[in-house]
């Protein structure tokens, strides 16, 4: 009985089990960025997405004409489940095509 109580205390004392594994969390974040109306309404179909790169505070979206930083703000959690977050889209920075 003591072993069961000890295991339950350990499981519920840590919040690490409340989050998705890193791979699935990043998939959820990238999907949220691509489906966000702020991203799709301002997208320019003349520039294909070349890369979505994870950086320290969010993601860098690189196209052939510009790059845009999307900041991830993680929200406090009260319950077990995937990490909750908000997206902050920064201004696009145009790339000079002559600097290739």
Count of helical regions: 3
Gyration radius, to the nearest Å? Answer: 19 Å
Q: Provide the residue-averaged pLDDT.
A: 83
Shape summary? elongated
Question: What does this 3D model show about the protein?
Answer:
The protein has 100 residues and is an alpha+beta fold. Helices cover 31% and strands 29% of the residues. It has 3 helices and 5 strands; from the N terminus they run αααβββββ. It has helices at residues 2-13, 22-35, 37-41, and strands at residues 49-55, 58-63, 66-74, 85-89, 93-94. Strands 1, 2, 3, 4 and 5 form a 5-stranded antiparallel beta sheet that branches. A hairpin with a 2-residue loop joins strand 2 (58-63) and strand 3. The mean pLDDT is 83.
Summarize the structure.
About 30% of the residues lie in helices and about 30% in strands.
Features:
100 residues; elongated; single chain; 5-stranded antiparallel beta sheet; 3 helices; 5 strands; alpha+beta
Layout of strands and helices, then pairs:
Layout: H1 2-13, H2 22-35, H3 37-41, E1 49-55, E2 58-63, E3 66-74, E4 85-89, E5 93-94
Antiparallel strand pairs: 1-2, 2-3, 3-4, 3-5
């Amino acid at each position: 009985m003591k072993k069961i109580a000890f295991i339950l205390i350990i499981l519920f004392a840590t919040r690490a089990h409340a989050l998705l594994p890193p791979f699935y969390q990043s998939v959820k974040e990238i999907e949220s960025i691509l489906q966000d109306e702020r991203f799709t309404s301002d997208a320019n179909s003349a520039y294909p997405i070349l890369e979505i790169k994870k950086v320290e505070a969010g993601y860098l979206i690189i196209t052939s004409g510009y790059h845009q930083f999307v900041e991830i703000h993680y929200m406090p959690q009260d319950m077990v489940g995937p990490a909750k977050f908000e997206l902050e889209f920064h201004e696009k920075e145009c790339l000079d095509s002559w600097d290739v």
